[in-house]
Amino acid sequence: MTKSELIAQLATRHPQLLATDAEFAVKTILDAISKSLAAGDRVEIRGFGSFSLNYRPPRLGRNPKTGEKVAVPEKYVPHFKAGKELRERVDFPAS
């Protein structure tokens, strides 16, 4: 599901909302999550999951085209951990 599809589904499920209101709500929530992570904070949505930052130390990488070694600097990357309710909801037998 894309952000546009989420906005459309939200507007369809709640006819009292205009599509622009649904779009504003989704963008506001995503912006708040992004800003909290950028500030180094953890975001927890109970029953859904939590967003946090994982530290990646500096390392030596390799340019796949030339094979030459390149220094990859340290960085923080976003990480999502699904909550118990979400894990249980999507747990179904693999075929």
From TrEMBL:
UniProt cross-references to Pfam families, sorted A to Z: Bac_DNA_binding (PF00216)
Gene3D superfamilies: IHF-like DNA-binding proteins
GO MF, any single term: DNA binding
Keywords for the protein's UniProt record, in alphabetical order: DNA recombination, DNA-binding, Transcription, Transcription regulation, Translation regulation
SMART domains: BHL
Gene Ontology BP annotations: DNA recombination; regulation of DNA-templated transcription; regulation of translation
GO CC aspect terms: chromosome; cytosol
Matching InterPro entries: Hist_DNA-bd, Histone-like_DNA-bd_CS, IHF-like_DNA-bd_dom_sf, IHF_beta
PROSITE patterns per UniProt: HISTONE_LIKE
Record's keyword annotation contains Transcription regulation: yes
Role noted for this protein: This protein is one of the two subunits of integration host factor, a specific DNA-binding protein that functions in genetic recombination as well as in transcriptional and translational control.
Assembly and oligomerization: Heterodimer of an alpha and a beta chain.
Protein family (similarity comment): Belongs to the bacterial histone-like protein family.
Protein name: Integration host factor subunit beta
Organism encoding this protein: Sulfuriferula nivalis
